[in-house]
Design goal:
It is built from 9 helices and no strands. The chain is an all-alpha fold. The protein has one domain (6-136). Helix 1 (9-26) runs antiparallel to helix 6 (86-101).
Amino acid sequence: MKAYDELYLSDIVDNQGEAFLAVRDEFSGIDEKWFIEKYMQSHVRAMLDIGNIKFANMPSRELIKWFIAEECNNEYKHGEEWGGFIPEWAGKIYAMYQWEHNVKSKDLIKMLPLSKIEEAFPALHQASWESAVDKIHGLVGA
């Protein structure tokens, strides 16, 4: 059983990928890995886990600004960029995986840490989202 109606899937997947990439422009010097881990464990991501319309339709830049303001009290950890387009890919993979396997995002980030995403990226970044998620699912042994 999928996590929510497929009607919202492409918006949530695309938005999350865009958000994970755009955060470096919106919050100069932010630690991108910190942001992704914090976001995946957040209330807003829990709402997206069930296809909440308010958050599913919120533009990515507005969503990350809302998240930093409301859930992080306008504070964030400074650090290095993760680099390139891997944050966007990670965002889309996490969103697609969450929907496909109906797992809570706060559990997914523990089950599939950023280090595993980084390992999978070179081999899978050109595969379709569905194929990449299937291969990653096999790797995590879920």
